Task: structure prediction
Amino acid sequence: MNLLETINDAFTLWLKSKEAKKLFFAMIAIQILTILIQLFVFGSFLGNDYFNSPYLPEDKVEDFLRANQQGFVTAIILLFPIDILVSLALVYIYILLVREAMKQQGYKLSRLTGMQVIYILMLTVSVMVTSIFSLVELKFSFIPVALVIIFALLWLPLGLPLGITNFLRYLLLIIFLAEVLLLIRNSVRLFPSFPVFFANSYDLKPNTLLKTLKENILDTWKLTEGNTKKIFGGLAGIFIVTFIANETLSIVGLEIGKVAGLYTGILAIAIFIPSLFSKIIITLYSVWTNYFSAIIFKKLE
Result:
């Protein structure tokens, strides 16, 4: 697998598909709507100053939030179900992106069904749990278990001597770092689980879903064996490009937002512009990574 060629395909292949570009703009539309809803909800609970103030300097942000703490918390609680719905909508679009990437590479896929969408949601959770607890390679499962035990020992009021407490804190840090590395490695190994599912005729009967999830995860694990470094390198490359683009556009967006806020006297506009720029980059990252998962599946199959 040529890593640079694979990364380049992830960046460019979607541009050759009308369907993928439609999905990209659909995600942008969802993100814009989400930002507008957030601005409205926060404005409703933070008062008129949120809409009728000019750009808020960085050194005043903390004072502003402290003065409006109750309204800020209330707004976050109200926005939580909206965030859940947006996340589900985006996952559905991710599914469509993976399928479109596979179709562009010659795969003939069956019609997407509601059961498949539900299964993908279950697969997402299963991959997360498997990655955290290393359920494929149980020899490493002691790491998250030890992390939980040591954290409990430090959290519970056991009256441990100071020396033992300090030792456990250092040990907790070491095990935590080990768990982070394990989580990254397992997540990379299971990264192309979506295309593995769509390329295989798994049984999706309700009474066999757990068995199917296990087969899907194990098949993905076998597929990526010996290619962890390349997949990680590809994801790291996409992340670096995204990070640089996001940092650059964040500076530009903040400056444009500052000027717009001062010109219009509306703080919400100053917030909306940099938020929009950031959402565009995040959306591009989602497109690139979903296409990358389908492309590496094709190359490793």
In short: The CA atoms of residues 240 and 254 lie 21 Å apart. The mean pLDDT is 88. The two ends are 11 Å apart (CA to CA).
